[in-house]
Every structure is written in structure tokens, then in C-alpha cells.
Amino acid sequence: MFFRRLSFFFVFFVVSLFSDMKKILFLVLALVWAGAGAALAQWQPKREFRGAWIQCVNNQWNGMGRDRMQQTLTYQLDELQRSGINAILFQVRAEGDALYESAYEPWSRYLTGRQGMAPDPYWDPLAWMVTECHKRGMELHAWINPFRAKTKGTPQLTSPYYAQHPDRFFNYDGLLIFDPAIPENRSYISFIAADIVRRYDVDGLHIDDYFYPYPVAGVRIPDDASYQRYGGDMDINDWRRHNVNLFMKELSETIHRVKPWVKFGVSPFGIYRNQKSDPNGSRTNGLQNYDDLYADVLTWIKNGWVDYNIPQIYWQAGHPAADYVELTYWWNANAGGRNLYIGQDVERTLQYADTRGNGLRDQTQQKYDLQRQMPNVQGSCQWYAKAAVDNAGYAQTLRTVYHRTPALQPLYPWLDSKAPKKVKKMKVVWTADGPVLFWRAPRGKDEMQKARSYVVYAFGPGEKVNTDNPEKIVAITTEPFVKLNYMGGQTRWTFVVTALDRVGNESKANTKKVKL
Asked: Mean per-residue pLDDT for 134-142?
């Protein structure tokens, strides 16, 4: 990657020495960009986060009922799997409610049409999604909104917590907000997250970009009483950020105490600070996490309170106030040792032309080329899942170009860096459906060292075994077997199987030679 960039700037320098060679310069640059883009498209990372958000707040489930909703989700998951998506961020708590069975919060109106009304026929969407995602080799991250308790469209509240403690909330422009200053609120939300993590086999707990409410012109946050009680000598803006920091620390520690392998991630608004507010900010001009939402994302990263960060860079390359390219570079430079993925808007990516002068009518290639050049960017997340499914051309590009080979999840060495042991007793059994390769799971002393899934590689005659090559991955599966394709029994193949633990550490390889 470095030499590709170096060659670009060298050509630019040499040709630009000759002012009468502008046409040649343009042609050379175009060829270099085309070559770099083609090379990046062919290169496939072995590890990459390839996520998609499935939200409920757009009311897409209202009135569907269990069977139709399951049918719709099944179709979306199947299509996303075909497109190489390996992680689903599923919204299960939009406003102090639940799209899962909860003893503490009411069923969501986004599921049944009325808050507190159970689904009929009865089912648990989160439990169902965990099973369906794992069956497809996808992670499932439960996505909650921490502080929002009521949106403008919610006509009634049935929350027991609100009924018991209405003084712990404030109203803001039609929203009802858990006051972040109140310690009991922070502990309650952490308790709800712990309940989800404890009872469901989720791979991650995810929160979005709503902390203190998005500002409305002329509307003040009504937290004077809390400030008088808890603020002390702090500036009110620093105090609000301090409240959110306390919450993030408590939530992170709570999740990892319940299950150390569950990843805690956040998707903040795409701008941390503008340069006009902070010389170290991005060259942008928009709403700011730090100043307007009181979300000090860099402090969370620096202190290790989050395991991954997915800034919502939903704008297009070339946006006059919030350029996708500028923000991707900025977040890459401020990744801070935690996993960084880019949140990108599918519809806006397709709406705008590539800004590099290559004639491409959308920005898919431009965005993927850029993020894969960034040393600290380890993947992306699609906003939103349905858009990634419904846009057939975009899905096809993912399948044939950028997600052409399977990808393992990025590593989280601060959670665990010890790999499981090798799989054992590999053998081929000839069944009525053809040959099946079986193996036995390795022993693990504790949950962190147990095999969670397996990677199967296939190498043809004369090919050197190289498990760093994702082109050779034929399956990532939770089952201790894989069906093989019989081709007449004349060709000797080498199959390699490794074990993955819950955070993606990969074991040493075990091999089996088979004639197929």
C-alpha cells in the first residue's frame, strides 16, 4: 500500500515539472488511480468487520406479526449473508422498551404497535435473531439507545421505571430523556444491558449516537436542578460530558464483568469537533459530538471503555461541510488503539459520483478504496441493512468485488489474545450425500479458550498451505463438520481446519488429505 501511494506522488512530481505536459499528467494520474482501484478491489483482507444495522424506529415491523416479520428478516439475513456481511447490529431498545422478553421494560410499540402489548403469536425477536445470525456465521450485536425514554410518536408510556421515578427524567422538544446526571439512571441502564448480555448469547452490546439530546434552536436542556445537586464547581458543559463519561465507564465495566468476551461498541455522530472549535478537530463545519451532544468519544477510546468505534460518516465524498474523505482520515488518525469501522450510508454512496475524475457514477469504489488504505480502519457498517439488500447493484458489487471472499472478525487482544488449541481427530466419512469432513473440538479450560467456530481451508495439488490467504477459505462454520464436493476421486486436496474462540483468536492448523 505504501509503495502504491509513493508511486502515485512520484509520477505526479515528475510529470508536473513540465508545464506543457498537462494532458499527459491527467492521463497518467487517471491510469494510476484506475490501477490502484483495481488492485484494491482484487485484494481481500482475511479479517474485516462487515456489519449492517437493522433498525426498528422506521416502523418497518408495525402490523407485520410474527410470521411475516420472520419471513422478512430471513430474506434480509440470507441476502446479507450472500453479500458477505458478518455482523448484524439489531435494535432491541429504542426508547426504554424491549424487542425481547424483559421483566423490567415494556414490549416496544415498534414491534406490536402499542407499548406494553406483547406480540401475538408470542415470540422473542432477539432470541430468534441470535439463533438465525449464528446459523449463518454472523455475529449479533444487541443495539440499545441508552437515554431516550420516549419519542414524539409514542402516545403512552407503560415503563415501570418511569412510573416509579418520573423525577429522574426531563422533557426536551417532545422527547423524554433519562437524565444522565442522575447516578440511579446510569446504573439502571447498565443493569438493563447486563440483563441482555446475561440472558442472550450476543456477541456485542452496541449503543448509538443519542446521549444528551440533539440540540434544537432556542430550546434549553432543563437540567438546572440536577446541575445544582451534582454539578459542584464544574462548568455545566464539562459536567454534562462528565456524566456521560461516568455512564460509559460503568456500562463498559458492567458488560465485561458479566461476559468478558462480549464486545462493547458505539456509533457516534460523524464529527467529533470542528477545527474552528479545536485545532485538532476535522476540517468540517457541522454539529459536534463533544460540544453539542456532550459525547467525548476520544476519552472513551483513550481509557479503553469501548472495544470498537463506528463513527457515522454518512455524508458523501466532497460534501462541503462534512467530507467523507476528510472524516475518514481524521478518525483513522484518532483510532487510539481500539477497533475502528466506518459507518456509511448506502443510499448516499449510490447517489453521488466518484470525485476522483474517473467517470464512476457512484462512490462505492472511492469509499472502499479509501477505507482499505487506512491502516487503522478494519471494516465498515452499512446504514442500513434494507438499503444494502434492496439495491441490487450495490449488493452485487459487495459479492463480486469487496466481499468476494469470507472474512474473519478483527481481533480484540485487550479482551483476550490466547488462541484455542487445535481441532482433533479429523476424518472423512462417506455418506449417502457424499464425503463429509468431521473433526472434534479442542478442549478449553474456560469459556474464553473454547472453540466457538471453525475455519475450513482447501488447497489443490501443488498449492502451498497458507492460512493467511482468504481466497482459500471454503467455510466458516459453528458445526464440527463440512460437506465436501466429490469430483471423481482423481484429485488430491489438502483440507485445513482451525478453531476460533469467542473473540476470533485462531488456533494452529490441522490438516487432512482427501481424494475428491
From this structure: 97
Q: Which string of b and e fits 353-389 if b means at least 16 CB within 10 Å?
A: bbbbeeeeebbbbbbbbbbbbbeebbbbbbbbbbbbb
Q: How far, in Å, CA of 480 to CA of 365, rounded?
A: 37
Name the residue ranges covered by the structural domains of the chain: 2-42, 49-402, 424-515
Given a contact cutoff of 8 angstroms between Cβ atoms, the answer to whether 367 and 394 are in contact is no
Of 286, 285, 344, 358, nearest to 315 by C-alpha is 344
Give the Cα separation of 238 and 465 in Å (integer).
Answer: 55
Distances in Å between the Cα of 390 and the Cα atoms of 54, 70, 271 are 13, 17, 28
Helix 22-42 and helix 364-373: axis angle, to 10°? Answer: 80
Please tell me the distance from the alpha carbon of residue 146 to that of residue 205, in angstroms, as a whole number.
11
Q: 39-86, pLDDT tens digit by residue?
A: 555 789 999 999 999 999 999 998 799 999 999 999 999 999 999 999
3-state secondary structure of 474: strand
Task: Give, in order, the Cα–Cα distances in Å from 340 to each of 336, 351, 379.
Answer: 9, 25, 7
pTM over 0.70: yes
Helix (H/G/I), strand (E/B), else coil: 247:
helix
Q: What is the pLDDT of residues 429-460, one digit of tens each?
A: 999 999 999 999 999 989 999 999 999 999 99
Outline where 84-124 has alpha helix (H): 109-112
Alpha helices per DSSP H over 303-430: 324-333, 346-351, 364-373, 385-390, 392-397
Which pLDDT score, from 0 to 100, does residue 179 have? 98
Return the pLDDT at 40: 53
Q: What angle do CA 490, 496, 500 make, to 5 degrees?
A: 155
Asked if pLDDT for residue 394 goes beyond 50, the answer is yes
- The answer to whether the CB of 272 falls within 8 A of the CB of 332 is no
Instruction: Calculate mean pLDDT across residues 7-24.
Output: 37
| CATH number for the domain running over 424-515 | 2.60.40.10
Q: What does CATH list as the number for 49-402?
A: 3.20.20.80
Reduce the secondary structure of 64-81 to three states and give it as a string: CHHHHHHHHHHHHHHHHH
